[in-house]
Write a structure and sequence with these properties.
The protein is α+β, with helices and mostly antiparallel strands. The chain contains three helices and five strands; from the N terminus they run ββββαααβ. It has a three-stranded antiparallel beta sheet with strand order 3-4-5, with no helix packed on it. It has a two-stranded antiparallel sheet with strand order 1-2.
Length: 77
Amino acid sequence: MAQGAYAGRVLLEKRHGQWQMRLCSGDGLKDVKILQQTGVDAASARRLSDGLQIAEAKLSLADRNELARFRGTVQLH
């Protein structure tokens, strides 16, 4: 997700039939342990991390670096 000069990753969760932002992060969103600390179960955290690695492999290095600039993890729910 990018907004102006800022970029980062967003974890969405479907609640009551609508997608809502659950957390925002940089590289932390790729970390299984961080996902688990925010309430994602172990199996889902592994799938999310693996899927993100595969999807981001298609991005340029510059785009991946831009996503990594977001510092910390912000839980939104």
